[in-house]
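## tool: complex_structure
## caller: assistant
## args:
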Amino acid sequence: MVRVGLTAQRLIQAGAELADEVGFEHVTVSELARRFDVKVASLYSHVKNSQDLKTRIALFALEELADLSADAVAGRAGKDALTAFANVYRDYAHQHPGRAAAARMRLDPETAAASAGVRHARMMRAILRGYDLAEPDETHAVRLLGSVFHGYAGLEGAGGFSHSAPDSEESWTRVLDALDALLRNWPARPTP
Amino acid sequence: MVRVGLTAQRLIQAGAELADEVGFEHVTVSELARRFDVKVASLYSHVKNSQDLKTRIALFALEELADLSADAVAGRAGKDALTAFANVYRDYAHQHPGRAAAARMRLDPETAAASAGVRHARMMRAILRGYDLAEPDETHAVRLLGSVFHGYAGLEGAGGFSHSAPDSEESWTRVLDALDALLRNWPARPTP
DNA sequence: TGCATTTACCTAAGGGCTTTAGGCAAATCA
DNA sequence: TGATTTGCCTAAAGCCCTTAGGTAAATGCA
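## result:
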């Protein structure tokens, strides 16, 4: 009986790679076991269950993404920072579609609160400090940006923008231009 | 042997309701059969397989949503139309979270091309005609709006904005204000 | 109205993924 | 080196998906 040296970390890492190959929704304990050439039951000492595995892949992706974003944003401000941050997001979704999908997975509130998701939110707020928005507008803007980034990655991943002109790359650039313009010119609350 | 009178339409309708109750990802041929008090195999005369069932629920949701949007937008223009359209989207996601998730499902290109998704795109373009954007900016704007609507619904459905101030309702209103302002003031392509 | 055809639902069966319980051998430690 | 821990295994049960082939209800036709 050869020991492969499974650990939760190795499983999650391999799970993330598997997600990128076959899609996050097709990540399965069985397939993971197959890849380690190990029986399925063996994984259950390292991971609670299938749900737990997926959650931990999601948390892993969120961390990874937050680390990349932090690097990209360091030393930048204004549109520069916004673009760098947004591009990390989109590039990650291109290079790691499975992990990106994982990062969009629904987490229960406590898990989410303990996740790197909060770092993302903090970074976004830091970027927004370059545009001066008073609360609650800053929060509205955070939510708008989050929606755009998630939404764009989702639609692009679903093939929404492929095979139609202009190419998605150009739209992305122009969307960022537009968001920058919007943030510099955030409208006052209209008087009814 | 009592006959229940299954049809593809009834299955899809019931499937949509099931999705709203348990989440689209938990819609299962078995559960559907249980609800009709019928054996699982019986469904396979009406629906090709599980994937087919889900796809048809997605198409159903897209149609329903397009019909609602068309009604809401009729007779409106400018911000009025934009708001009406956007609110249909969001209200639908609130009232029918499962169907909304279905509507966000990845479809293969041919299926997507034959779906009500194209009506959605056409309506968006019609609304944008109220803001005068020349191509390719109109397309960029369509993609931005799509991303925001999908993204906001996704994050809200995932509980992203709950239990934090200001409430999601207010953010949504202000996001629409902001999008309207942006469309009225779409930035020219910056000269590098 | 009676018979043939079609159709709706059924049983049976195989295969995959998940999860738990309990066992044996490799690694670790004293 | 012997004891303990730990990593991976077998076995088994449960649920979902899917196909093949059967039976009875509904429908159509003479």
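## assistant note: Chain B touches chain A through 46 residues (CB under 8 Å). Residues 58-184 of chain B form a domain with the Tetracycline Repressor; domain 2 fold (CATH 1.10.357.10). Handing back to user.
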